[in-house]
Amino acid sequence: MPSTVIAPLKIGDLIIDPPILQAPMAGFTNAAFRQIVREFGGAGLLATEMVNARGFVWMYEHEAEHPDRLWGVGDEPRPLAVQIWDNDPETMAKVGKRLVEEYRVSVVDINFGCPVRQVTEKAHSGSYLLREPQRMHAIISKLVVACAPTPVTAKIRLGCHPNNVNCNEIAKVVEEAGAAALTVHGRTAADMFRGNADWDRISEIKAHLKNIPLIGNGDLDSAEKVVAAFERYNVDAVMIARACLGRPWLFAQAAAALRGEPVPPEPTLQEQRDVMLHHYQLVVDRFGEEKATILMRKYACCYAQGKRGARHFRTHVAKVSTAAEFHAVVEEHFPLNPVQ
């Protein structure tokens, strides 16, 4: 049971309760995944996959269908955040304005944390921009004006490299530019996802913010760790990322723990398999059998992670291309025995 009452998170005029956020993750947090998370409950704010702002503008100008990464956004419950990335303030503002006016999103989040080479070195976006605070300021301030009164938030890392940790400076820039909240992943870009997130560093940032909330992110893979993050560190909210991909019920467990209630047990392995099959059907309904089956391979691997026989299952599910093959592999190989 937490030793103190955890207050809701306030992003602008938006109240997020519980203050547990689902991280935007490219290739994973699509509408099907978000629906599964909502069915379990516990996430105060959900987010889309990150959207390439420049690509979105091109599609709009050429009257193409909106990006797959915005599938479901128009119809699903609120609150909902959409994360966008690029390095051009005008492009970002144009996309932010459309997201607010046409999609009615609750929050527009800016990705300043992605460490993937295609985004950083090739597009000079994501975590690359941590070395250009003035450009970050320009992007945020333009978006704030374009999206008003919808709040604009930013997600960063500690810095580009362990020898160049500048998150305290960046936090001031983010707030001065008008952002309504700051999320910090406790690694540098060079760390990628290696090692442990540095929550002490995250916590230190709070002293450099005047009025906006600080959201901590990194290595939260249990309800106990979520409670500990609030008790030990100076954060206003937490964001759960990779750990939820195969365990979308983690938010419900964490929310119960924050309320001081008994933590719901892990679903049985049979129940977990049923969740995965439900997830698969949602993807099939949107994309059709062939594309959905290929998309579902990586999700299936997440659901199996940490289970006895998971490697064997991954080997087989990585080859499926039809619904019949997917169901056959799940029936024969999905791990139904606990790790021993």
Automatic annotation (TrEMBL):
TM region(s), chain numbering: none
EC number(s) given by UniProt: 1.3.1.-
One function term, GO molecular function aspect: oxidoreductase activity
PROSITE patterns: UPF0034 (PS01136)
Enzyme class: oxidoreductase
Reactions listed under catalytic activity: a 5,6-dihydrouridine in tRNA + NAD(+) = a uridine in tRNA + NADH + H(+); a 5,6-dihydrouridine in tRNA + NADP(+) = a uridine in tRNA + NADPH + H(+)
Pfam families documented for this protein: Dus (PF01207)
Ranges of residues in domain DUS-like FMN-binding: 22-334
Protein keywords: Flavoprotein, FMN, NADP, Oxidoreductase, RNA-binding, tRNA processing, tRNA-binding
Cofactor(s) required for function per UniProt: FMN
CDD domains, per the entry: DUS_like_FMN
SUPFAM superfamilies registered for this protein in UniProt: FMN-linked oxidoreductases
Family: Belongs to the dus family.
Protein role: Catalyzes the synthesis of 5,6-dihydrouridine (D), a modified base found in the D-loop of most tRNAs, via the reduction of the C5-C6 double bond in target uridines.
Protein's recorded name: tRNA-dihydrouridine synthase
Higher taxonomy: Bacteria, Pseudomonadati, Planctomycetota, Planctomycetia, Pirellulales
Recorded name of the encoding gene: dusB
